[in-house]
Amino acid sequence: MTFYGWFTIVAFVVILTALALPLGSYMARVYTGERVILTPIFATPERLLYRFMRVDPERGQDWKAYAKSLIIFSLAGWLFLYLVLRTQDAPWVPHLLNPLGYHSPPWNVTFNITSSFMTNTNWQYYSGETTLSYLSQMIGLTVQNWLSAGVGIVVAVALVRGIVGRSGKSIGNFWQDLVRTILYVLAPLSVFVALVLASQGVIANFSDYLVVHTITGLTQTVAMGPVAPQLSIKMLGTNGGGFFNTNSAHPFENPSQFTNFFEMLAVLIIPAALIFMYGRMTGNRRQGHAIYATVMIMFLGAVIVAYIAEAHGSPAQHAAGLHTGVISGSGGGNMEGKEQRFGIAGSALFDVITTVTSCGAVNSAIESFTGIGGAVPFANLSASEVIFGGVGTGLYSILLYVLLAVFIGGLMVGRTPEWLGKKLEAREIKLAGLGILITPLAALFCTALATATKGGRASIAEVALSKAGGNTPQGFSETFYAYLSQANNNGSAFAGYTGFVQPNAGNLGAHGITFADVLGSFDMMLARYAPILFALAVAGALAGKKVSRAGLGTMRTDNPTFVILLIGVIVLVGALTFFPALLLGPIVQGLTGHLY
Amino acid sequence: MKTLRGKTWFRESITSILAMIIFVVLGGLLYPFAIEGISQVAFPGDANGQQIHLDGKLVGSKLIGQRFATPVLESDGKPKEVEGVVMTVPDPRYFQTRPSATEGGSDNAAASTFSNRGPNSTRTEEADAKNIKAYLDLNMAPTKQPYDPNLTVAKIPVDAVNTSASGLDPEISPANAWIQAYRVAAVRHLARATVDALISKYTSGRGLGFSGEPGVNVLELNLALDRIDS
What we know:
The structure holds two protein chains of two kinds. By secondary structure, chain A is mostly helical.
């Protein structure tokens, strides 16, 4: 561990908070229809979009209508993406946008990719540079990077409206929220981030792959592509699907020490801003600050553990005789699967940021993290996307937990629970409980199925590679992480786990592993859309409720006591559901120096 | 009531299709083309991968690590291949990049990949041990003494032995470069101070003064060494 490492972590938190505060206020104004700085530029295009899409943006929707629009739109997106990927080698695709003449990926892998990008998961069994054409990356994946981020954010906005709403059943208009999210929030940020990254070495071209003749007489082929535009929305929308196989570890996706820091900010800026937006929309900013404090405490805990564990080094390194301490000119630590320019702190911090959110981008190999360092992303995922979480998903998930915490707090003091002046009744609590439990349920069910069946074992790299035939904590971790990550719509991986066998670049002779592909798709879709529906239903249930003034007996949700209660509830739910499984995988590795 | 409901589904489906069309045009075509256009004009070097040319020939990208190795030749003069991969030996005259898990350990920049070896895996230990031996061998003078008199297993910086994440890491740690400087200076008959000066020159600093670790760009360093020689 170094001074610079700790300083990076502190600087990150300070800069993030300073940037998220004004963005949160800006977003609150966008969604309440107030005039913002970009209104003069976007008001006309916004109107034209509504006219083209034939929607009346002023027509309020109740939660069912809102959900209906969302589901139909998602379905349309799914079909379009599937078609784009399956017609990758069609004759109408111009050479410029498929310079290497890649064939379409097989149906089962395409099924998984499609479900993955539509649900904001961006789980990747394929590797970009050997599987997809530039056109597929652009109109297929980049488009879903925008839309899945937009869909996540609008659900959070709708839930907040339901919580604070005082007039009838409307929770807003899906189309208006979506268009505003994309025009006023995602687009300006994305253009800015893309241009900054492109100026630092993230490539942006349509070239053929380069052929290099090295000074020692070898040849090297270097993959190219339109990376910068996709990369910026991948980070901002907490999508996380890499243009290249090694994602943000690839020098063309993350070329320098500076871009690493910049990309980390891009991932967390919107989830952090949304929390402040919530505070503003409730009319009491302290509500937002309390949630921000809650998630920040859990976030910092994760960062500190991961940094210390990775700086310590791994049992395998020590067995080989390596010295993993800091020496002059080297930061030491577990550098297996990490890049020199990011070092240990830059890798550990990036890893925590992308696993607390639903981003799932990686700048280092999570499978090569130490036992305890690797338990951190597991724990982050076990908290079900509430520590900042994905754009929108994080906010609506933690608001469901807030509801639960208020309910439990109410039981403790023996009063009818009240939240922001609204009485909580059986219906909301049931819906919130279901919304919270569906993700762990999907993750554990799929893990159990994949661990217990032959079909599941085919995907485990450890089965073929390790001496113990995959019956190792590592083999279990691969499977568990795969379905936990997909259920949380995260997309990071213990990347040994695979659902795609690809002997050649360009998909000739490639085949998917149907079991893993389809089970994963089911996992992602269920854990994405069920909580969305429950969150919207909660919004609907709360929207029409009368608001009463807070009395002496009302439990406050904006003070440190509530922060502690909320952390307790989150940790309790996560620990109770996942602890036994976590013990079998990463924790057992972290507690032993044994090699197997 | 039933027809009304049918109408909603129909209307929302039409809107969804129209929305997909417009978002594909805006987000999937206009946006990437605009970013590419601006980048190609404003920062063409960066947008095209920071290519480095030598005598009009493309010798690499500054950002992509490569092997500085020569092919092993069979007795008939052809490069030796094992399972389709050309066998190479590192060239001691050049600084060497970090181990790579890409196909054939060759910094294959058309298919980046992690090693995915676990922290408690015997495979990790075996790979580390193999890389330690290779590093010691490479930095061993013909006199059977290491070029760097202080070099022992415990002194080897971790980045010299552990596989990089992308398999294409263009940089090595300064500590790794200082050890290799003894070898490169001896083989090229240069003063070590000259080589160390070049190392400092091609070491990237921390981002914003604090983010990340300094790294030495191996390709730039090697090209600079060749310029001194000629």
